[in-house]
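Troubleshooting log. The previous run stalled partway through. Resubmitting the same two chains, unchanged.
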Amino acid sequence: MAQGVLVFIEERDGKVKKTSLEVLSAARKLTNQIQEPVVAVRAGTGEPSVNLAHYGADKVFCAQHELLNAYSTESYCAAITQAARTVQPRIILSAASSMGRDLLPRVAARLGVGLAQDCIEARIVDDKQLECVRPIYAGKAYARVRLLMTPAVATLRPNVFSLGEPDTARNAELTTFTPELNAGQVRAAVRETQVSAGQRVELTEANIIVSGGRGMKGPENFPIVQQLADELGGAMGASRSAVDAGWIGHQHQVGQTGKTVSPTLYIACGISGAIQHLAGMSSSKYIVAINKDPEAPIFNVADYGIVGDLFEVVPALSLAIKNLKSS
Amino acid sequence: MKIVVCVKFVPDTAIKIKISPNGKEIELADVAFVVNPYDEFAVEEALKIKEKLGGEVIVVGAGSEQATTGLRTCLAMGADSAILVRDPSLENADSFVIGTVLARVCRDLHPDLILFGKHAIGVDNGQVPSVVAELLDLPQASVVTKLDIQDTKFRAERDIEGAREIVEGCLPAVITAQKGLNVPRYASLKGIMAAKKKQIAVQALDSLGLSTEDLKPRISTEQITLPPSRPPGKVLKGEVSEVVPQLVKLLHEEAKII
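Second attempt completed without errors. Output:
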C-alpha cells in the first residue's frame, strides 16, 4: 500500500538547495493532512548540510555510489526509482529546478506514470490523489490537474511554496543505501560545471528581478539595470525584443519563450508588456513598471508605476535604495 | 547520421487565451498555429549536423490533420521526410501517451540522434522527450544551448542556475533544444517548392500496435482558469526627484520588500 511522500533533495557543491527545502516543507504540509511520512532521498553520504528533519523529513535515504558523484539523468533516476521501490510512496516531489526538470520526467517515465511540472499549488484530494495547479501557456492560464497513477510525480516551482519555520525538535533517521548501478547504464553525465561570471543571481530563484526591454535602446545601457539589480541583491532579466536585438544574452529572457519567474519584486524598465512577456512574470508578488508611455500594457499589471524616462528614473532609484540601505 | 526531430504544431505565442465553456480546454478554433519555437531550434540543429556530417533528417509529429502544416514547414526548412501519427485523440493526449506514440515511431527508424524542443509551448510540461528516451533506453541531455557531435559521442552545454553544465555521452541519444542553440533558418522559396514534393507518411494510431495500457491517460485536466487578475496599481506622476522617493517609500513601507 503506497503511502507518504518521497522528496528528492538537490545539492550543489555539498549544499542543500533552498528550493529543495521549500519542497520538503510543502511535502510536510501535504502529509500532515493524511498522517503519512515524508522521506527525503539524496545522492551522497554523510550528514547533509542542512538537517532535513527540521524542514519535515521523517527519514533520509542517502544513495551511495561512485556513479552518483557527477550528475547523470540515468544514474540519479536509478537511485530515486530504487528508493521509491523501497519506500512505495504515494507521491514523489522535487523542485522544478534545472536538475528537477531534467530528472523527474525520467523518473516518472521509468515508473510508467504521469508528471505535473512546475506546479504552484499542490493538495491531496478526497481519494488521496494528488491535485496540482500548474501554469500553462507560460502563465496565461492555470490548469488544475489530477495525477491518476501511483506514485504521482510532480515538480514544484521555486519561490512559490513557503519555507516553513525549521522545527529543531524533530529528528530523522539517516539510512545509506547502494543503488544497483553499473557503468553501462550511465551513458551520459555531467563532465564539467562552469560557473558563469555574468549572472550573479539566477533568474528563476531570484527574489527580486530588474528587467530591461526595448526602451533600453541598446546593449550599452544595460549596466544601469544591472546596477539596480545589484543594489537590490536581485537578478537581471530582459524582454524578448531586447534579447532578439542581441543586446543581452537569451539566458536573461523572461516570457513565453524564455523563463517564467515568480519573484517577490519585478521591476520592468522600458518594457511595454507584450502578452508573451506578461505571461512569464505576472505571477510576481509586486510589479513595478517604469515606462515613458502611459498607455503601455505593463501598467495594467503593475502595482506601482512611474511614467517617465527610465534613463533618469532607474539610476535615481539605484541611488535612493543605496541611501536607504546605508541609513 | 540519421536524425529524427519530433515536432509539435502549437498555438502562436501572441494569442490571447479563451477558455472553452466546459472549463477544461483552451478555445483554439480561430487561433494561428506555428511550429513550436523550441522545435525550430531542434530542426535547425538537425539540418546543421546533416550539412556537416551527411545523413538524413526525418520530422515526426503526432496529432490531427492540421499538424501536417507544421511538418510541411519543417520540410521547407530542409528536412528530408516526415511522418505523422494522425489521430484527433492525440491533440489532447497527455505527455506520457504522446511519448509512447513517438517512441514507437522512433524505434522503427533506428535513429542515431533524436531531437526535441525543450518543451512544447502551451502545455509547458517537458515530459515527452524523457518518455521517449526511457522507452527506447537511451541517454538524454535536456535544455541544450550548444551541441557537438563527434563519431558516436556528443558533447552538450546546458544552462543551469548560475552556471553551465557540460554533458558528455554516447549516441544514440535524446537531446532537447533551448533558445540560444542556433538561429533557425527561414524556409526559402526553393525550399517551400521542394517541400510540396516531399512525402508526409501518415500512420494511423491503431497501426502502431500499442496496448490500451500504453494509451491510458496518466493525468487529467480538471479545470482551466485565467490567472487571478491583479488589483489596479498606483501610477506615480511628477518629477523624478519626487516620484522616486515615493516609490522607495511604498516598496519599503507598504510592500515591505526593501
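Takeaways: The first strand of chain A starts at residue 5 and ends at 8. Chain A touches chain B through 96 residues (CB under 8 Å).
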